[in-house]
Amino acid sequence: MSLIYTPEEEAFRAEVRTFLQNEYPEEVKEAVRAGKRPNREQVIAGQKALAKGGYAAPKWPVEWGGQDWTPMQSYIFADEVLENDVAGTNGFGIGLLAPVLVEFGTQEQKERFLPAIYNADQYWCQGFSEPEAGSDLASLRTRAVRDGDNYIVNGQKMWTTEAHNADWIFMLVRTDPNAPKRQMGISFLLIDMKTPGVSVRKIRLMDGEHEVNEVFFDNVVVPVENLIGEENKGWTYAKFLLGNERGGMSNAKPFWRRLEVAKREAAKVQLENGTLMDDLLFRARLAELETKITAFEQTALRVKGTSADGAPNPGGSVIKLRGTELMQELTALLIDVAGPNARAFENDGLSEVENWQSATIHTYLNTRKVTIFGGSSEVQRSIIASAILGL
Amino acid sequence: MTEQNEFAEAVRSLLAAHYENVTARNAVSDTELGFSEEVWNALGEMNVQGLVFPEEFGGLEASVEDLAAVLAEVGRVLAPEPLLDAVFIPGFLVERLGTDEQKTRILNPLSTGELKLALAHEEYGSRWPGIRTAATVAGGKLTGKKFPVAAGPSADLLVVSAKQENGSLGLYLVDAKADGVTSVSYPTNDERRGAEITFDGAAAELLGTGADVDEALADMYVYAQILQGAETVGSMREGLKITVAYIKQREQFGKPLAVHQTLQHRASDLHVLNELTANLVVQAVETLAKGEYDKKIASQVKLQLGRAGTQAAEQYVQMHGGIGITFEYPISHYLSRMVAATRTYGSTEDHLRVLAESITV
Fold it and tell me: Which of A91, B38, B41, B227 is the most buried (most CB within 10 A)?
């Protein structure tokens, strides 16, 4: 990508930067700078600020608040988001559910949900996986039985990220257990988490954090108007959504950003002879990573990894597989830059352990999930084998 | 050999009784102390803490191989009791450098579990192998700041490095509760405990005569690196066992995960890594038993564990899928432990650098 910007592009950058510097909440930036996962309140505050400027969902269609930007403008925006320590938005709503609503929802559903998602008035989570339905998602068992104008939902979801914070959940449920193929009896439902019969149990992860949950549904009454598209066609919508989820890893900027942090901090690390940045072994590791990231970035620019025209794209699997591996490799690099200080998993009261150092192992452990969730690396390899290579 | 296995077997039974599952272990590691006093005392009754110390100072005078076998059991169940950090590593220095009077006073209660030590040597801003010591002693008073001090929060007595008045490095005994000692505790990612300890004119007693300290510390690192390897191999092997059992039992697409050849081959590769690593460590422990402290062998152990152990532990989690990243299921703890072990006594990259620099034609 050219590094020479047109005057219009420079003006666009200045406009975005000014907005993010002045209008985005400082408290949220601080959390991002500290390497901490922003909490619900921070995500909402940040997203509301972005929404005011029209920046909450640039990829959406313009009529629902998206931006008709050139690829270069999108690039500049992504750049400024990172430069200014802007937290992610509620991705389950903005990035995953909204494209499904736009493609398959009724006009009434779009009007009811899209503005609320955009303005962070609804905080969403995703109910796909179940205890016995991980990689084999189509074996899901949560039942929805039609009863007049409602569905009665019973069952259990697993690994539901942010369920403890969410107002709404979008779900895959089984509406026809007798369908000739398992994929044919599944529907896509939206459920208000405050509905009686919905309960959440937290799952503690290996980094000690609470972000995923089990969600239980006990005779939960859901109005039929919360069904997306047609009954028993949910698998089609789910594949469309998963295609977007895989392609969502296509931005290499966070990788470059981590590498920059690694270099800057390594220059401060004193070894026996010079700093860590002077060390050829370390530089060789950086060189390998720079090459890998460049190859990834160039591939991501050329492989259209997202779903289009209602169909998933297997190119997203290439991006997801490689992007997640790179992300994990970078988290390991940062532990080594932090050195012995990384051993302090909490740094309260420690005089010389910086927040980012104390966060490196958290991030490494937390990032193990990225090759498991959203279609594991094994699933992505199978998709590449069958859908791309025809094996 | 038989006796060695019997002793390790006894430790195995004891630990199995207390840490039969991850819930029991998590309940212990979630406490402030981070390990079980009950298990510690039971180990002490068996004299496990005195395993390698001389009989005249209350130990069992067993071989380093015996100790390695016991540590493998600790690693196998990820027992949180800090045997290396609170006993064998600082105890190594006391045995090597201490006067007979000091050894009598320290190694006896150490061997029964009544006394816990911690080594306060490393300081902020320096990394193995280039540990710099800014702490000083003047008129029997020690001043300086130490980090990280593994097992610092539970220590009764600290073995602290500081510059002697003659300018050479010395090791000192400082009561953890003495005036002028302040300690800030933290948890490590693998639920152990460490401390930053500040000494502000704390009363310090010289360990031994003050001579041969550099050599003792150099040997201690070799000892620690290799024995930590023995413990970590125990974890690595158990992790594979847990993973193989899991993929046989977990069904997706109507069949156990284990029927997929890609997972069978991956498990086979990890078994090969296990064997290579375990045998490298066995050979390294044998050199220790002969009284050889070979830096190159220790660094090879650290490099091999850093590469093979990390690859294995990451794959154990990956092969489990979602359940693998939860605190409530055992396998995540094996990865967490591997991350910690490969960043202690020099990181994998530090050891690669040392080995690369030492290559000769």
Answer: B227
